[in-house]
Automatic annotation (TrEMBL):
Transposase IS204/IS1001/IS1096/IS1165 zinc-finger domain segment(s): 37-82
NCBIfam families for the chain: transpos_ISL3 (NF033550)
Domain Transposase IS204/IS1001/IS1096/IS1165 DDE: 152-392
Residue intervals of the Transposase IS204/IS1001/IS1096/IS1165 helix-turn-helix domain: 87-133
Protein name: ISL3 family transposase
Organism this protein belongs to: Duganella margarita
Amino acid sequence: MHDNNLHLPFWEGFSIWNFDCRADGVWISLIPSSEKPLRCSGCAAVCQQIHGRYWRTVRDMTMLGEPVWLQVQLRRLRCARCGSCSEHVSWLARHARVTRRLAQFVALWCERLPVSHVCKLTGLHWETVRRIERERLEGQLAALPEAQPTRLAMDEFALFKGHRYATVILDADTRQVLWVGEGRSREAIRPFFAWLGPQRCRQIEAVAMDMNTAFDLEVRQHCPQARVVYDLFHVVAKYGREVIDRVRVDEANRLRHDRPQRQVVKRSRWLLLRNKENVPADKLPKLEELLAANQALMTTYVMKDSLKELWRPTEPWQWRRAWNNWLNMARDSAIEPLCRFGKRLQPYWRGILARMRWPMHTGQLEGINNRIKVMKRMAYGYRDSAFFFLKIKAAFPGNP
């Protein structure tokens, strides 16, 4: 079919020259019309001189279930500013191999579906879809105003199996994810402070984290004026792993000749780790019976509640008295895992005390980490960690 007069709104400035149905889809040849002035694709300036012509093959939106291929004749112009350049086309980006509306369609569905599903939906190659999605994400992040954080929250999440982790850093005030990087060592998070720069590092007043020595040392090096605040959840979780679990295993081993009682102790892990107010009513008698029958488990369970009290005082002298009482009780308990935990916790007292001045925690990051897990499951994992980190930052742009 040849028709130089057939104009359609999809392809502004062009008319259909040829139409062909093939096995792999519909092929449409487009030639430029002379209705609009020629503009440079680089600076949008009006150009008068045509330097040459060439053809480009482009994918467009599917029509009636058939893939649409466009063979577009483009003109190369002579621009006073840019030199030799291609003409500006409203529906086709510079150097693009897909039309703008197809790119917008892909970007829209990439917000809701994994890349592999969008590939099946559009018939595009995986790399093409990911490139379109990456450009969209980079555009969103570039449009955000420059972050000026004063309080940070830092945490880690599992990136792959085999104890491979990534670190996520959040603006605690705006809830914007500022940075994501692979690893949880000092070297892994150092690029964040290089990105932040000396001026913004001086603005940081407090940083909430778990008892990660690498995080602590790196923050103190780059933000010496900032106070490190240790999160209650992580301290209690560490207590559960290092004290309650260890004492439970030791008591089960001690009762190896009393098999019924040994099984009761061995199977009580989640019962002991739960807060008493969260224990189901039907399990409460079992917990009370277990604690009454085992002095070591009773002591560690009570000391867990006492540990939480260290985050509740409102006056420094109250906190100091509660801190000294807890350390003395841990030391006097004669329970080796508890004594060892108290000794390890002692150097971190400033970070626990800082909670009174800076009532911060990493709870916001825990919620973000849960959503990150959902993103990983939806995509069946990511081949490119940098692309995954880009999606995380775009998913949490912060509150306006």
